[in-house]
Structure formats: structure tokens, C-alpha cells
Design brief:
Blueprint: E1 4-7, E2 10-13, E3 18-24, E4 34-39, E5 46-51, E6 58-60, E7 68-73, E8 78-83, E9 92-98, E10 109-114
Parallel strand pairs: 2-10
Antiparallel strand pairs: 1-3, 3-8, 4-5, 4-9, 5-6, 7-8, 9-10
């Protein structure tokens, strides 16, 4: 069974930065497109960023373009999300998954941005 473990969240002031990590126990990780999504309280999960298997193609939600950067290290089965210039509206639980997503999600990592 695939395990996805997110980490790196925390409490930060607006304008600050965080780097999230997601490690996947996935044998085919190096061939998988990986996504970051987030879920704010009372809202549905929404797409944040994606990266293809090679790291050569990335995509971002308009709300995070220019502030967030997705990257990966296939040798470590890990995908990262560097988040800069954080805003209060970035507050959410952040999850990673493959694209298309596996049925099992990780526990996510909480990001809280104070104004």
C-alpha cells in the first residue's frame, strides 16, 4: 500500500516562507506526476502545483504562481513545495498525491499564515 507522508508545515507570519516535503513509498515514484493540493477549513481540496516525472514540466494554480515552487528528488522519492511570500489565504492543510491520485491520502501538513 502506498504511503504518502507530508511534513514541513507550521505557523508563519504573512510574507514568510515554508518548505513542505512529501515522501512517497511508491515503487514507481520516478515515473509519476506528483501534485500538491490544499484544503482550507470548510472547503474542498484544490490544486496547488504539479510536477512531471522528470521535473521538467511544472504547473501552478494562478493563486500561487510566482510565489510557490514545486520540485522533486527521485532518488529520495520526495517532492517539495517551496512557499514564499505567504498570505493568510494560503492557510490550509497541504497534501501530496500522484496524478491521477491514489485512493489513500496522507495525513497532510498544516500551514497557518497569520496576518
Amino acid at each position: 500500500q502506498v504511503q504518502l507522508v507530508e511534513s514541513g508545515g507550521g505557523l508563519v507570519q504573512a510574507g514568510g516562507s515554508l518548505r513542505l516535503s512529501c515522501t512517497a513509498s511508491l515503487r514507481t515514484f520516478s515515473a509519476a506526476t506528483m501534485n500538491w493540493v490544499r484544503q482550507a477549513p470548510g472547503k474542498a481540496r484544490v490544486f496547488v502545483a504539479s510536477i512531471d516525472w522528470s521535473g521538467g514540466r511544472t504547473d501552478y494554480a494562478d493563486s500561487v504562481k510566482g510565489r510557490f515552487t514545486i520540485s522533486r528528488d527521485n532518488a529520495k522519492n520526495t517532492v517539495y513545495l517551496q512557499m514564499n511570500s505567504l498570505k493568510p489565504e494560503d492557510t490550509a492543510v497541504y497534501y501530496c498525491n500522484t496524478d491521477p491520485p491514489r485512493a489513500t491520502w496522507g495525513q497532510g501538513t498544516q500551514v497557518t499564515v497569520s496576518s
